[in-house]
Amino acid sequence: MSTPLRPPPVWLFDLDNTLHNASAHIFPHINRSMTAYVEQHLSLSLEEANALRVHYWHRYGATLLGLVRHHGTNPHHFLEATHRFEKLHKLMVFDRALRSMLRRLPGRKIVFSNGPQRYAEAVVEAMGIRRHFHDVFGIEQMRFHPKPGVQAFRHLLHDHRLDPRHCVLVEDSAENLRTAKRLGMKTVLVGRGLKQPAYVDMKISSILRLRRAARPWLA
């Protein structure tokens, strides 16, 4: 008797700078919006607001978490105010071959993003790839506990009834992959010129290389 094939893994995809290039136009827009929000709502100078935004991002993995913890900021109001795009499609930088790669990659796929769900949904719609994803899991679904915190992962695993040993996290952030590896997931680091830590199972220069590189996991 032949050995039955293993089911394909569940692919967990980070969004910004993994599925598309957010650094080109989108991140600068969001950073300016966040700094303006902090400046206005905390009555700070532009320089003070920018420094605080960056400080909270480094300390908590998201500016939002620092604002909620230390200033009582309403997270929904903050996300709505800082992720407004009149013409999002004009800011998008991505490879259209991504659609084909996702279509041919076996297994369930979920977007796992620290961004708000409405923004994440808009981005994948703009790229024409929403149909390839079972779900888009944003910061609201993480109960406002962003990656790399383990709570973000536990909420995703619980809500989708996933076994971490059957999941692959695809990310541009090595720190987020560290948490995934501790939970038992396979890990893929996306990006050029990045070192490959011991907890990263695979490093690829482009998301388009994922399907070919992951063939041993699909056997």
Overall pLDDT level: 94
How much helix is in the residues? 40-55%
> What is the β-strand count?
6
Figure out the total of helices. Answer: 10
Shape label: globular
- What integer value in Å does the Rg equal? 18 Å
Largest sheet features: 6 strands, parallel
Order of helices and strands: EHHHHHHEHEHEHEEH
Instruction: Assign the structural class, choosing from mainly alpha, mainly beta, alpha/beta, alpha+beta, or little secondary structure.
Output: alpha/beta
- For the termini, the CA-CA separation is 17 Å
Main-sheet strand order equals 3-2-1-4-5-6
Low-confidence stretches: 1-5
Q: What fraction of residues sit in β-strands?
A: 5-15%
How are the secondary structure elements laid out?
Elements: E1 10-13, H1 26-41, H2 46-60, H3 63-71, H4 75-82, H5 88-91, H6 98-104, E2 109-112, H7 117-126, E3 135-137, H8 150-159, E4 167-171, H9 174-182, E5 186-190, E6 202-204, H10 210-213
Describe, in plain words, how this protein is organized in 3D.
- The structure is a single chain.
- This protein is an alpha/beta fold.
- The chain is built from 10 helices and 6 strands, in the order E-H-H-H-H-H-H-E-H-E-H-E-H-E-E-H.
- The protein has a 6-stranded parallel sheet.
- Helix 9 links the parallel strand 4 (167-171) and strand 5.
- The chain is globular and about 55 Å long.
- The model is unreliable at 1-5 (pLDDT under 50).
